Each structure stands twice: as structure tokens, then as C-alpha cells.
């Protein structure tokens, strides 16, 4: 609980004063709900026919641009509900995606089976990118030692970088993602690091706490993002924000069509994510991310507040499985219980403490590069396309 505030919970969702930036209006409704409503009015709460027209236009564009290529789009697949549903939707739309799975060494058996089922029944080609485990272990441990809150940045950074690298290799312009407002819009900025693609922050943390050089890691800093946008004319599409997407109905469909099996938590297809969200965040940072996930579902009218309260009354996940994950994580990281607990006992440190790509000098270099070479890259890109 935030020690500077008297405990209070929103009367509409389940966000509370464990989020430092929370505020309430006179009715007791939090700022996250109010911000969600404003954003939803401009996006997912627009008339369905308008959204579906936009989606049809996007699909037509994807097919037209990629009509002469082996694949017309790229989809990242974790085996979770959102990315799995995207594969189902792409099949229904007659798209020809290359499906990419990023294997960082933490896949659950259930995730692997879900992915196999989806690929088998859609007939899509699968590209599995397997990261060097020793390098990735060193990078993840660096984040744990750094005592920053968002230990998922290495995975998120490398997933995005990998997708763009593979898209470039196969000359794919369109990347379809499973991002969706209805289940992800509410998340306090103090509970994660907003700039997931901050290559400077990642590099600095690893330099300080890592023990081995990172070889052949795909990177996606500001300059690489500019090159992808201007030179390679890449773009992304988020169909779930344009469809009438209901996560619970999506799960029912996936179970029927793909024999898909639920993980019991958002992103729990990864053993590390399950352990991070279910143990590390509550234990070290007093953050229960379920509050944000459930509040998004409440705000989008996918579930009721009563259902969210009931879910929060349960443990973050099964205690026996948590104990199993704890022991597995120590073994994977090759650390003792004493070492790991010493990391957990260190006070939290802000990500910005280690420097960011938005620091004055780093941004100056990017601004010069963008101003001088941006138009040139865009001109070359138009000639290529």
C-alpha cells in the first residue's frame, strides 16, 4: 500500500492506492477509468461499422502490397489468447502470414502445445527464433540485479527487434499485432517501463551488471526504428482494436477451433512472466498487476467489478506452482536462494537512473540523423516500393 495515502479503491474498477499516481473524482471514480473512457470513445467505442471498414481497408492494403511476395504479413505468436486469436482471424481473412515465435527459454509446455495446434490447423509457416540462452540469462539477471521494476524489458525489446529483423529478411511490410485496448489500456506508468525499445537503458544496465558480451542480439533503437519506417516502409496493424473483441468469447472459440488451453493469467504462457507477475512484483514492488488487467476488462465491460473483486481475492496463482516456479527460476538463473533473496531485498531503482535514449546527448544524435537522413531514407524507400 502507498504509505503517503490513505488506502482507497475505485468504485468502478479495482485499481487502488497501490498505484502512486491514482486520483479520484468526487464520485470515487479513478483517473484510470476516466482516461479509459476518453480513449475508448476515440477508438473501440466508435461505431462497429466504421471500425470494420477501417480494418477491411487495412486488410486490402496488406494483400495489395504483399501480393507478389511469399508472405503478405508477419504475426508474432506467443500462444496466449490475443496472438492466438490473431492467427485465427488472419486465416479467416485469407492472409498469408509468416508466424514468428520468440523462444527465450521460458516457454511452458502448455504454450508449446498451443502453438503447435494453431500452426497445424491454420497451415501457416512458423519461424521460431531461439535466443542464445546464456546471453539472455545474463541480460535478465542484469535487470534483476539492477532492481528496476520492468524485468520484462529484455524480452519485449528482443521480441520487437526480432519481428522487424525477420520482416526485413523476408521483405514483409506489414506486422500484425495482438495489442488491444479492451484488456490492456489500464496500467500505471509506475508499474512498468514505458519505453520498451530503449536500447540505451538496456545496454547501460547490462554493462553495469552483466558478465558476458551480448552477441548477435537484434536491436531496435530510435535510429533502427526510423530506418524501418522510412526506408523499408513497414507498418503495423492492431485488428483487435477494430473488431468487436471479447477476450472471454475469444477463449471459447480458440478452445473449440484449436483445442487451445488457458494459462490462468495474462501472459502466463511464459513461466518467467508467471513468476515475475505472480511473485516478484508483489513481493518486491507491492504491485499486483492483476488489478490493472482486471480493471481494463471491467472498464471495457468484458467482466463485472464483482467478478474482478472475486478474482483478486484469490492468490496471484497456485501456491504450489509458485513454489515450483521459484525453484525452477533459481536453477535456470544458476543462483542460490540467498543470492536471489538478496536481489529481492534491494530497494527499487528507477529505470531512468541508468540513462535513457531520450537523454539530451542521445536524442541530439537521433535528431541530427532524422533531420539529415530521414528525407533521403524516405525517398529511397519510395523508389524501392
Secondary structure topology:
Layout (H helix, E strand, L loop, with lengths): L30 H12 L5 H18 L7 E4 L4 H12 L4 E7 L5 H14 L2 E6 L2 H14 L6 H17 L4 E3 L4 H4 L14 H11 L12 H9 L4 E3 L9 H12 L12 H15 L4 H10 L5 H8 L6 H15 L3 H9 L14 H25 L1
Parallel strand pairs: 1-2, 1-4, 2-3, 4-5
Helix pairs in contact: 3-4, 3-10, 5-8, 9-16, 11-14, 12-13
Explain what you see.
The chain folds into 2 domains: 1-42 and 287-317, no CATH class; 48-285 and 343-354, 3-Layer(aba) Sandwich (Rossmann fold). The protein has helices at residues 31-42, 48-65, 81-92, 109-122, 133-146, 153-169, 181-184, 199-209, 222-230, 247-258, 271-285, 290-299, 305-312, 319-333, 337-345, 360-384, and strands at residues 73-76, 97-103, 125-130, 174-176, 235-237. With 385 residues, the chain is mostly helical. The protein is globular, with a radius of gyration of 21 Å. The protein contains 16 helices and 5 strands.
Amino acid at each position: 500500500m502507498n504509505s503517503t495515502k490513505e488506502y482507497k479503491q475505485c468504485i468502478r474498477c479495482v485499481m487502488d492506492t497501490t498505484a502512486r499516481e491514482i486520483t479520484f473524482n468526487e464520485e470515487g471514480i479513478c483517473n484510470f477509468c476516466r482516461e479509459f473512457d476518453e480513449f475508448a470513445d476515440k477508438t473501440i467505442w466508435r461505431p462497429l461499422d466504421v471500425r470494420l471498414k477501417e480494418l477491411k481497408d487495412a486488410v486490402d492494403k496488406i494483400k495489395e502490397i504483399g501480393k507478389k511476395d511469399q508472405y503478405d504479413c508477419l504475426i508474432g505468436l506467443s500462444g496466449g489468447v490475443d496472438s492466438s486469436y490473431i492467427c485465427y482471424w488472419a486465416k479467416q481473412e485469407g492472409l498469408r502470414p509468416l508466424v514468428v515465435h520468440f523462444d527465450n527459454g521460458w516457454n511452458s509446455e502448455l504454450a508449446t502445445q498451443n502453438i503447435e495446434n494453431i500452426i497445424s490447423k491454420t497451415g501457416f509457416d512458423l519461424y521460431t527464433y531461439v535466443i542464445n540462452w546464456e546471453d539472455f540469462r545474463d541480460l535478465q539477471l542484469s535487470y534483476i540485479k539492477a532492481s528496476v521494476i520492468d524485468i520484462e524489458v529484455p524480452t519485449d525489446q528482443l521480441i520487437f527487434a526480432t519481428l522487424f529483423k525477420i520482416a526485413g529478411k523476408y521483405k514483409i511490410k506489414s506486422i500484425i499485432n495482438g495489442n488491444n485496448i479492451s484488456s490492456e489500456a489500464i496500467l500505471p506508468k509506475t508499474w512498468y517501463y514505458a519505453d520498451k525499445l530503449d536500447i540505451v537503458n538496456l545496454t547501460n544496465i547490462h554493462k553495469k551488471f552483466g558478465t558476458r558480451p551480448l552477441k548477435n542480439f537484434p536491436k531496435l533503437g530510435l535510429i533502427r526504428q526510423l530506418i524501418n519506417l522510412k526506408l523499408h516502409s513497414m507498418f503495423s496493424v492492431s485488428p483487435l482494436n477494430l473488431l468487436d473483441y471479447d477476450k472471454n468469447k475469444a477463449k471459447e472459440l480458440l478452445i473449440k477451433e484449436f483445442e487451445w488451453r488457458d494459462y490462468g493469467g495474462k501472459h502466463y504462457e511464459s513461466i518467467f512472466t508467471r513468476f515475475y507477475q505472480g511473485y516478484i512484483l508483489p513481493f518486491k514492488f507491492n504491485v499486483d498487476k492483476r488489478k490493472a488487467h482486471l480493471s481494463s476488462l471491467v472498464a471495457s465491460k468484458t467482466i463485472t467489478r464483482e467478478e474482478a473483486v472475486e478474482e483478486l481475492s484469490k492468490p496471484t496463482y497456485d501456491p504450489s506452482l509458485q513454489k515450483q516456479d521459484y525453484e525452477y527460476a533459481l536453477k535456470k538463473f544458476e543462483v542460490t536462494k540467498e543470492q536471489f533473496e538478496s536481489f529481492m531485498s534491494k530497494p527499487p531503482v528507477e529505470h531512468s537512473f541508468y540513462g535513457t535514449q531520450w537523454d539530451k546527448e542521445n536524442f541530439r544524435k537521433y535528431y541530427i540523423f532524422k533531420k539529415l537522413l530521414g528525407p533521403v531514407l524516405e525517398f529511397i524507400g519510395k523508389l524501392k516500393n
